[in-house]
Every structure is written in structure tokens, then in C-alpha cells.
Amino acid sequence: MNVAFFSTKPYDRRFFEAANASAHHTITYLEPRLTAATAPLARGSAAVCAFVNDQLDAAVLTTLAGGGTRLIALRSAGYNHVDLVAAKRLGLAVVHVPVYSPHAVAEHTVALILALNRQIYRAYNRVREGNFSIDGLLGFDLHGKTVGLVGLGKIGDCVAHILHGFGCRVLAVDPMPLAEGLKSIVTVVPLDEMLAAADVVSLHCPLTPTTRHLINAATIARMKRGVMLINTSRGALVDTAAVVEALLAGKIGYLGLDVYEDEADLFYEDRSNRLIADDVFSRLLTLPNVLITGHQAFFTNEALTTIASTTLQAVTDFAASRPAAFALVAPPARAG
Ligand code: NAI
Q1: Measured between alpha carbons, how far apart are the two ends of the chain, in Å?
Q2: Is 33 a catalytic residue?
């Protein structure tokens, strides 16, 4: 099957070429992000493979469908950037990769917590410059602290297990019933109760209209003074302007982000020779208690191997008219 692959990076090509050695699809690797301007590049490709910052709104989907595309294969778990209603209306099937490595994201979450707490990034710079003073690098024991997780799905479950191992008390907020394996290590509480008790708040729920700006001025007000906030889920879960205010006021003591509300115009490119025009993001970069990574929590060897094989299997299944295992929108029923 012809697949137009948007937002290609060298690592995508490496992992997808390896997986395609047995799948035998014809993949056209395109560097641009998928937008209204670049969508015509997919003309004639029955499948389009897209990533988290590709644009898949109704206008782009209409162009893709008009050019002969019938399958959107997301090489991500999150699908908040896809207009699924428009896809269905246009007869486009949509698949994603719901599980590739929750451990990758959970371990990165814990890396952010540890690095922020012990200020590893500042210590690294000091030692490289011959400054061996530890003044200003005081941390706290994670052991005995309360961690509050919003979302206790696959990633939240892994984070809960790791932090339980550190000796933390783990509270969680999730509308779904608590999995049996978590009952002995997690206490599910209402959001307000968790916010009032947690020393570290970490977000692991999807971005939906209900969870958009879940962390805002009002919810921040309910948190402990000096709380650590971690977001490795989706940027718009957090009202970033409100978080900046809270950082400046000392209400939030530490901020760890792998995702950012307006990351689409920043992440995954080398912008070191250009000015960053985003004032909120620039402000965050000036604060010593803020640690940001550029949406890389998924980025492990194991995760990329599974993403590539699962995505290409979905394309193969679609080509063979087999039901896809991870369909967000099923293909239209064929007449006759
Ligand atoms: P999942 O679907 O297994 O779990 C999500 C959990 O959130 C579910 O248990 C659900 O009941 C819960 N939830 C939904 N609405 C909620 C609410 N209002 N309050 C509290 N809980 C709520 O998803 P998974 O695999 O754990 O991934 C979580 C998120 O992580 C994804 O939606 C995605 O946005 C993000 N992610 C980030 C990556 C990165 O590289 N930074 C990579 C992969 C996923």
C-alpha cells in the first residue's frame, strides 16, 4: 500500500524501514508537518501516517480524502489532534497505537521528578564549570511524600508502581474502577482531596474537552504551597499562563514538562539559531525550577520498535480488509 509519512525524522525512517522489511509497503517519507498547505503532498497515497503535531482537522482530512487517502494511521497513542467525526463523514478509517511502552513515558516522568528535586541539570552545569558548591541544590526525600496522579491508565499504573517503590503514598483521580493490581498501592480520591494532599502532582489522563485546562488558577489554588507539577501527557491539560503566575508567586515550587500547549510550532526542530516568539514559553525557560523536554517521553528503542510494527500491521490489515485491532474509526462498510 502507498503510505505518505509526514513529519519524518531520521529515527522514524530507521525504525519504519526495519519494520517494513517484512511488511513491504511503499512508504514516501516527507519531512514537512501535515498542515492544510502540505496535505496535497499525499495525493495518490491510500494511507497517511501522522504524528502528534500533525494537523488533522476537517479541512486537512477533506484534502486527504479528495486525493485518494482512505486510511489515517497515527503513530501515536493520543488522538486529540484528529477530527474523528469529520474522518467518519469523509469515509476515512483511523487507527492509532494505544500501547507501545507505558514504561517509556512513566520512566521519563520519574526522571523529571528526580532531576527537578535534586536539580541535576543545575549540578551538571556547575560541575562542568568547576563550581563544586552545592548551595541552592537542596532537595527532599521522595520517600514518605504524597504523589497525586490524574489518570490511572497504562502510564499512570506504571508511575504508581515506580513511586510506590520509592516509598511514596500514591493518591489518584480516575473515573474508572481501580484495577485489582493497584488496590494495595493506590488510594483513589476526589480531585480536590488529591490536590490538597499531594507534594507532587503528575498528569496522565488524555486531553479531551473536559480535561482541557484541568490545571488552572482555581485548581492550582487548592494545591500545597511549593508543590511539584509534572505534565508528560498533553500540553493543553495545563493553563500555562496560570502556571507561570503560580511559579512566580512560589505556589508551584517545581515544574516538569514534556508537553506544551503550543508545542506544534516549537518541538521536534532545531530552533537554536532563531528567536522563540512565544513569550509564555520563553518565560518558563528563564526559571531555574522549571525543566522542559521536547515531547520525548515516548522516545525509547522499545517504544519505537513497537510503534513501527503496530502501525504497519494496521496498514497491512486495512489493505487486506481485515478489521484493524486499534481502529478509532472503522473503514466504511463496502456495498454488496
Ligand atoms: P490510558 O487510556 O491507558 O489511560 C488514561 C486514563 O485517564 C484512563 O484510566 C482514564 O479513565 C483516565 N481519565 C480520563 N479522563 C479523566 C479525568 N477527567 N480525570 C482523571 N482521569 C481521567 O492512556 P495512557 O496510555 O496511560 O496515556 C495517557 C496519556 O499520556 C495519553 O492520553 C497521551 O496524551 C499521553 N502520552 C504522552 C506521551 C509522551 O511522549 N509524552 C506518549 C504517550 C502518551
Answers
A1: 23
A2: no
Looking at beta carbons, which pairs linking 111-116 to residues 24 or more positions away fall under 8 Å? 112/230, 112/232, 112/256, 112/257, 112/258, 112/291, 112/293, 113/142, 113/200, 113/202, 113/228, 113/230, 113/256, 114/142, 115/256, 115/291, 116/228, 116/254, 116/255, 116/256, 116/289, 116/291
Q: Please, are residues 191 and 169 in contact by the beta-carbon 8 Å criterion?
A: no
Q: Give 284-322 pLDDT, tens digit per residue.
A: 999 999 999 999 999 999 999 999 999 999 999 999 999
pLDDT single digits (tens) 26-75: 999 999 999 999 999 999 999 999 999 999 999 999 999 999 999 999 99
Q: Is 316 helix (H, G, I), strand (E, B) or coil?
A: helix
Nearest Cα residue to 164 out of 152, 180, 147, 150: 147
Q: Is 95 helix (H, G, I), strand (E, B) or coil?
A: strand
Pocket test for ligand 1, best of 51, 105, 261 (most atoms within 8 A of CB): 105
What structural domains does the chain harbor? 2-100+300-329 (3.40.50.720), 102-292 (3.40.50.720)
What's the pLDDT tens digit per position in 85-126?
Answer: 999 999 999 999 999 999 999 999 999 999 999 999 999 999
> Is residue 156 in contact with ligand 1, taking CB distance under 6 Å?
yes
